[in-house]
Write a structure and sequence with these properties.
five-stranded antiparallel sheet, 5 strands, 30% helix
Length: 133
């Protein structure tokens, strides 16, 4: 849900476009690279748009617990550092894709990943904050 009712950019970031930017199989590829077996992964990763606030686009990498797995905090709190550098997750590539969707409406000038947020036992989120100019 958008944090700004005047968010004219929300129409650019539909669930379909976000799936194109961050395909569902990326979590399996991440776990294959990290653990040697995609089935060992405890969560699926989805990109979500959360609005525009104070000149920043607010996204999140949502971590959805997989059936029969545990989404323990100790598995997710170190992820911002890992995600920021991991080539399979490719945050810079995601930001570049977002910049293309903006198509000149704004320019991405930087990004950072925030601390993991536990939304529920089955859902954690890693904020992706993108500065606009």
């Amino acid at each position: 849900m958008s944090t700004n009712t005047n968010d004219k950019l929300a129409e650019l970031f539909t669930p379909e476009k976000l799936r194109d930017l961050f395909p569902a199989d990326r979590a399996d590829r991440f776990f294959d690279a990290l653990l040697g077996d995609p089935a060992e992964g405890a969560y699926d990763i989805r990109l979500a748009y959360n609005g525009l606030k104070d000149g920043k686009l607010l996204f999140a990498l949502e971590l959805h617990q997989r059936p029969g797995k545990c989404l323990a905090c100790n598995l997710t709190y170190g992820l911002p550092t890992v995600f920021s550098r991991h080539p399979v997750i490719d945050i810079q590539g995601v930001v570049d894709g977002i910049a293309k969707l903006l198509d000149g409406r704004a320019r991405c000038t930087g990004w950072k990943l925030g601390a993991t947020i536990e939304k529920s036992r089955q859902l954690h989120g890693v904020p992706l904050l993108i500065d606009l100019a």
